[in-house]
Amino acid sequence: MTALFALATALLWGLADFGGGLLTRRLPALTVVVASQVLAVIALGAVVLGTGAWREAGPQLWFAVAAGLVGPVAMLSFYKALALGPMGVVSPLGSLGVVVPVAAGLALGERPGPGQFAGIAVAVVGIVLAGGPELRGAPVQRQAVVLTLTAAFGFGAVMALIAQASSSVTGLFLALFVQRVTNVAAGGAALWVRTRRGAAALPAGTGPRILWGLLPALAFVGLADVAANGTYSVAAQHGPVTVAAVLSSLYPVITALAAFVVLKERLRTVQAAGAGLALAGTVLLAAG
Predict the structure, then answer these.
(1) CA quadruple 132, 251, 201, 79: dihedral positive or negative?
(2) Exposed end of the chain (fewer CB within 10 Å): N or C?
(3) Mean pLDDT (whole number) for 264-271
(4) What is the pTM of this model?
């Protein structure tokens, strides 16, 4: 069950990142984040009301609040790092966030077997290579490296926090709702500050109508991201966090494959090799 839900997480996160990347070609990145999360809050709010999940409110929800605060910071750091580039360095470094939940699992006493340790090592190398690291070229700005590592730590911290935010299915719905409300509050505040400083929330010459046209895509990104957090939490609760975290972090492979299928982007040799290693690591983890 852990492997199944973790791989579902990788699929959902990978498709959400691909969709978000396409949307940021039409809208500012922060607007995409806030708008997609607002739609997720509406959907989750209906689920929480329908299931009576609010009855499971408790101290564990502070983990969800923390995840909701860390998430937007990580995402914005990642987008800013991508702007400074090069993407071929930023993307693989960003995937190193998997180290955080793996370290948390080890600290809590998990001890994967030799085969699983080998699978973790192979998969992590594959994940980094799947991003297509640029091994040659101009030096990378120090700020880009710092921002990328900040984002990586943030992404990993969200994985570790959300796994601790609930212990039941209905409790998970409530935890995800709290996390998304916090996301919207933090992201909305950042968007308000940016607009006050003169930055545009929407492309020049457009109005709110552009959001209506992109509503299905925004809803998909927001809901896929929520679902991924949910499947990851289930995976982490029903098996070793070390295994769940590594398998869930295969999402860069999914994003690269989606770009290959939909946008006809060719995979670089290093990306193809990374995808192969990631899949080999997956087999080792599942067999262990």
Answers:
(1) negative
(2) N
(3) 71
(4) 0.79
Handedness of CA 187, 21, 36, 212 (dihedral sign): positive
d(CA 279, CA 154): 25
Q: Is the separation of the CB atoms in 78 and 148 below 8 Å?
A: yes
- CA–CA distances in Å: residue 186 to residues 32, 34, 39, 267: 14, 9, 15, 36
**DSSP, residue by residue, 240-257:** -HHHHHHHHTTHHHHHHH
Confidence of residue 68 (pLDDT cuts 50, 70, 90): very high
d(CA 129, CA 92): 7
CA distance 128 to 89: 9
Hey, what amino acid is at 42?
I
Do the Cβ atoms of 134 and 86 come closer than 8 Å? yes
